Amino acid sequence: MAEGSNADWMGSLAPALSTFPLAHLAIPGSHDSFSYWVDEKSPVGPDQATAIKRLAKISLVKKLMKKWSVTQNLTFKEQLEGGIRYFDLRVSSKPGEGGQEIYFIHGLFGIKVWDGLMEINTFLSQHPKEAIFLDFNHFYAMEDQHHIYLINRIREAFGSKLCTMEHVENVTLQYLWEKSQQVLIFYHYPLYQEYPFLWPGNKMPAPWANTTNVHKLLQFLETTLGERAQHGTFHVSQAILTPRVKTIARHLIRGLKNTLVHRNLPVILNWVKTQKPGIMGVNIITSDFVELVDFAATVIALNDLLLEGHRAVTKS
C-alpha cells in the first residue's frame, strides 16, 4: 500500500456516500490496535493466565510472549495513514505503580494511553474529514478512579472532536463534518452513562469466533452478519484467528505472524472481497497485521457497491 494513500479516504468518498449512516459503510479496523510496541521489561499484564505469569519469570519466555503479543506492526499514525478507522483497545493500570496512569495492553504492557491519544489527535487535526471509532472493550486492574482518570484524559485529548451519543442512523460523515466532530468512543463499563461523549459498548457488538480454523471463522462471520440488528448498532466482523495455548506452545519460536496469519490472510481477504456493506451487510472489518496485504484498501473499495445501488434507486 502506498504510504498515506488511504489517509483521506473518508473525505474522498463520492459525495452521495457522505449521507449514508456510518453503520452502513465498510470501514477497516485493526485488532489489539496498540500492541505494536510492547515492553519486554515490564511485568506481565493482568490479562494473562496464572500459568503464563509463572512462566514469564524466565526472560526467554518474555521474549517469546512478545512474538505472540504483537499483532500490529504499524504505529497508530501509520495505521491511520493506511486507512484504519476502528481501533480495538485493551487498557490497564500497572498494579503496584503509584498514580493512576493507564497503559494499552496485550500480554505485556505497551505505551501510555495518553501518548496514543495524542498521536491520533494530531492525525485528526491534519485530516479534518476523517472520523474514527475507539472501542475501549477490555479493562484490567482498574477501579472507578482509574476509569474517571482515563475518561478525563480522553476528553482532554479530543475536546470538541468527540461525537456525543446519538441515534446510530443519524451519524453520517455529513453530520460529523457539520459539527466538526471526528471521534466516537465506545466504553464497555457502566460509567459511560455519566458522560454524553461515551457510547455504550452494546452499540458496537463484535462477535468473536475464537478459532484457529479459517473455514470455521468465515462460517462464523457469515452467521453473525445474518444475525446483525437492522437498526441501532454498528457491527464489527472480526476476521481474526485466535491462537490456542497449544498453538502458542507448538509455534512459540516462530510467533504469530509466521504461522496463523501468513497462511490464512489470502483466504480472509478473498472473503472480504465478496462482501457488501449496507443494512445487514458488513460494517467494520478488523484483521491482524493490517500491513501484510492491502487489507484497508480492499475494505474501503466495498463502498463503491453502495454507490451502484444508490444510482439504481435514483434512476428508477
Automatic annotation (TrEMBL):
Name the PANTHER family for this protein.
PI-PLC X DOMAIN-CONTAINING PROTEIN 2, PTHR13593
SMART domains to which the protein is assigned, alphabetical: PLCXc (SM00148)
Q: Which keywords does UniProt give here?
A: Hydrolase, Lipid degradation, Lipid metabolism, Transducer
What protein am I looking at?
A: Phosphatidylinositol specific phospholipase C X domain containing 2
* Upper classification of the organism: Eukaryota, Metazoa, Chordata, Craniata, Vertebrata
Organism of provenance = Chelydra serpentina (Snapping turtle)
Determine if Cell membrane is one of this entry's keywords. Answer: no
An example GO BP is: signal transduction
Say if the entry is tagged with keyword Hydrolase: yes
